[in-house]
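ok so heres the complex, two chains, lmk if somethin looks off
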Amino acid sequence: MRLKEDDPRLTAYALGELDEAEAAAIETELAHNAPARRRVEEIRRIASQLRVGLAAEPAGELSREQRRAIAAAARVPGRPKASRPASSRKAARPRILRRWAPLAAAAVILIAAGAVVLPTLRRPTELARRVVPLARQKATGAPPLDMPGQTGEGFNTEAYDHIVENPFLPVKDNPLSTFSIDVDTASYANVRRFLNSGRLPPPGAVRIEEMINYFSYDYAPPRDGRPFAVHVDVAGCPWAPGHRLVRIGLKGREIALDKRPATNLVFLLDVSGSMRPPNKLPLLKRAMKMLVERLGENDRVAIVVYAGASGLVLPSTTCDKKETILEALDRLAAGGSTNGGAGIQLAYNIASANFIKGGINRVILCTDGDFNVGVTNRSELVRLIEKKARTGVFLSVLGFGMGNYKDSTLEKLADKGNGNYAYIDTISEARKVLIKQMAGTLITIAKDVKIQVEFNPARVARYRLIGYENRLLRKEDFNDDTKDAGEIGAGHTVTALYEIVPVGAEPASRPEVDPLKYQRPGQLSEAASSGELLTVKLRYKLPDGDKSTLMTRPIVDRGMKFAEAPQDFRFAAAVAAFGMILRDSKYKGNYSLEAVAELAAASVGRDPHGYRAEFVKLVKTARSLKTGQ
Amino acid sequence: MSSQGPDDKTACIEAVIGRYERPLMRYAARITGDLERARDIVQDTFLRFLSAGGPREDDRLGPWLFAVCRNRALDVLRKERRMSRLSEAQSDAQASGEPGPPVIAERREVLGSVMAALAELSEGQQEVIRLKFQNGFSYRQIAEITGLSVGNVGFLIHTALNAIRRKLRASPGSTGAG
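and the predicted structre for the whole thing:
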């Protein structure tokens, strides 16, 4: 055992959570591992500070009447139900009791296996992506963090990573902005779920890029044989007069469903007890049936389930035997606890065994994300997913249900598997993801798609990328083909927005740093006087390639007003503004939900499936929730 | 419970209230952000203990009460579709906190930055941190209370402590974090 300082077991050890054998093993290691020893001391010091600090938090008391009422209930002989209605008793008790026994057993197994806590999912690339924005913020002197805990949000066990909003960056110091594309849309469906249940979403659940990308935009498909087309537009910014909004739109090549290559799918379905509610397994079964109905004789489907034990429910079966597949789906029932690790292993084995060369090979993981990888080490799982992605078996993740839903875990898994990730809360959402966008969901047409924008300091004073906070790359990563990035599917559109402060738009009276005494900043090149606003560069690889191709697109700002911008542009801006308000972004200015609703309603355009109309409704819901507080 | 006389029961509930009233109030108030609601929820929790016959052993009793309290609080939140006002709860906590003898200024500063770092964490992380360090529950007990897996609880606490550690390092003057 070689313990890293960041190992969760060290934390568990420092807090006295390990049993004797496990603690002894750690101690043996600590004897000759000074950094780990220092970490244990540090954890203990913070723990004792927390104990002291938290002990000082005030606590209220019951009123005298309440105490009397409890005492009176205690005096009733036998089993006093007194004022408690039987129904409410029934509601709370079984839930607790059911949970206890399996959990106690699970704890024993986990400790015995030496995996008390899940090792972190983050690898160096993941870390780099997340560390960059903080480091940059420091360099620019922007306030370090917005505070999600302070914004009066509700309380639940859903796990969302804290998002640090991209700040405005001065072009002088940060001429390059680099990020990975993201076709995920789960955040929008999740935000919708919060709003429809009468609550504002926690800021961490609002990922603006995923909200924007939930909608498809009417970009022209590529005509030059490339896998996707790039469209860049510049217009005014609705929430900050004087600022400019740059939209970068990608459109993946369309592939007709009947021209789709043969498909080898392995459904990996979570049938653990937590999947029992109607918006989980039953919805999942309906969604899967819908997908199977549309597959043909060249396609194969296998079903693996995981719970207490994982198992193969249906060996890989060609889709001319639809009845067999549908029957297998029908027989599924929820029960047991989750062991996703073994299930994933099995699913990948089957996908590899039935690999279709030149076809679509994909594991589709459906879960509420309450992922118990059991004895399987979490980083091993990620390694497996990455390794299989390199062999051509990709992973799609569909999130179901609510309450137990671990958003960030699922996104990371899909990310590692060259896959996409969607959240399904209704049957119409299932139809959108699985049927309407099936080609895109299943067929990756380009992978590791990275965008790097170089801003012209003669034109742009400052800029900020809206959203994509956890997709940022280092500028060096752009040309580094070993650094992976997002995938784009057939027919998919991807949209990114930059808010730009043009040179001269704000008084230059507040230099952030004094001019250097011994150096002069870099000189402008000839191209700076070309009148170009910026240059968009893209790199992508073909799905089976490992060398990237570069595309370059210089952009000139023609001074288009926001009102003259294309309908799609305006709608995307409305979605971005909505996300900024939900996140309580400091860049939202005076922009209100009323303005968003008005703007969105005016730019709905052709809306065949009603997604945009639904958005307008959501904005109004959010407005009434905010004002109703 | 059913074999007990009323006197035993009265003594028992008094002991339970004495031990858990304030911790539960703190917990419920943080979830709902509202003292009145917290009172109702905690009263309900004790009534349920009486009617359902909660466990007596201290290591099971605590998690049992907290789990009932938590479910009840979340039900109330859901039913009333009401946003919790955590920011208010937090500023109350900071304004009226620190009873007892005066502490030396440096110590207060260190504690202040630990608490400030804690306040920046997600709700879920703050919850498990409070269950662990304010109430002294084990990972397993926190798992019982929250319905998370033990592994998830450990992971949440680990990442939360890590986040606090990083914030302390990043903020100047936090000598206590080394």
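quick notes: Chain B touches chain A through 101 residues (CB under 8 Å). thats all i got rn
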